[in-house]
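Page 42, continued from yesterday. The earlier attempt failed because a stray header line got pasted into the input along with the sequence. Redoing it now with the clean sequence only.
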Amino acid sequence: MALAGAGVVAAMVKYWPQLIELEESADPPSAVILCGPGNNGGDGYVVAQHLALRGWEVEILRDPSKLPQGAAGTAMRSLPDTVTVQDFAMAATGHRPDILVDALFGIGCTRPLSPEHLALFTQTAARPPRRGLARWRHVMKLVAVDCPSGLDLDRGVFLAPDPVSPKDTDAFEQWSAAESHRQIAADLCVTFHQPKPGHVMSAIAGRRLEVVDIGLPDGPSQDAASLIDRPKTAGALRLVDPVRGNRTNTFRRWYQSITRLDQAAHKYQRGHAMVLSGGLAQGGAARMAARAALRIGAGAVTIAAPQSAIPETAAQINALMLRALPDSYTLRGWMADERLRALCLGPGLGHKRAQEMVPAVLWGKRATVLDADALSCFSEDPSVLFNHLHPNCILTPHEGEFRTLFPDLAAGLGQGKDRIEITRRAAERAGAVVLLKGAVTVIARPDGCASVHPAIRERAVPWLATAGAGDVLAGMITGLLATQPPEAVDLLGAAELAVWMHVEAARQFGPGLIAEDLPDELPALMRSLFL
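This time it went through. Structure tokens are written below.
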């Protein structure tokens, strides 16, 4: 608890150093701390001790009928005399603080906040600012200890009363009225030991997230259900956040563990990938996917196009190879080539061609990425696709395509349901890896092993929402799969690496990005990480 409280103050100092400069001034910084009855409130009392010793004006709001026990009680009794302690009823009195610290309820909270608790936030924010302060000090900053109170850390949504039960109707309406006025996202969330799923599923957990080490040992014994950085075992949950410590060495080991590259290998030993293309004037998506596959590590990449599209495609490629693919019978024959390790179907393929080619490719049992038209063409009866899938397949739908394949599961995506669990159930049903794209991408295997990749907060890349970006991602996954030996295909690992590099390339390029920029951004990205 002592380490947690000190870590919260250290994070505040880190993010708002301008307040620290005022500690010796005539108008020192001020903080209101909402303290609950449990250990989260205990963390708040420790925060109050540290801030008071630094010269801050500190006020604590608590419920006098529910005072803490144990370590939290000890922290409460250790408060300096300079700290003002008041009841929750006094939330609307006084001046607006520079910082409001939410230490009401932490990860153990399993019920929604009451309207009375929610009112503490709005009443404190509605206080008048002190006169004579700089205008930037009129904006109150919200700091959440461990998590914003009432946040479901499994799903990344705020807990709400059941609106269906008649007995809860009044409570739900009352709660909704209070919640609608709440400042949802904390400016800073300080959590401890490791992030939990809800921390990385949505920015409502905090516009900034700081993880503080409080001395807990690593390992599954530390509440394995809530930890998000696990080995690739059945049922595990992993966070795609590998670049810690030495950025270069970490990435090099990660990339080499996925690609299994042999320094003495020739191009086909390094890996041959194939991307199927659509017809005339429909090949742009396939070309981008193929270029991405080649850039990320495949030794050779072939575009398979209808005869009508061969001249157009040939005029726009150089390092990529090209073959005419007239029908699925020809494609089945190509499956005899053992050098062909990975295939990508869907980008710009067209529904009719996809319906013909997907079963032929899946018959070959090679590592296969199915995207775009290869998914949506089975919207009328997804079971037709599922019956052809094998364990070396990965489906990469965005939410719209996910809804066509898994309409019953997708209904929960707009209702705050568990995005991780929904993707896991989809993978189990399909018998293949499912990658659900979005600002928070979730990848799941049929055995329940899942990974979360958040592109939020400091890694947000809104300019990545551009036509063709998903086609490039499919090609990147395909290229990585091509580098893996057939007997040791790691679909989850390839997808994790590709998704992370996809976002890093977009961040490196910056605003103005279009999809065809992404493949050519990969060499500079890898140079910066390798060298």
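Notes: The mean pLDDT is 90.
Reminder to self: strip header lines before submitting.
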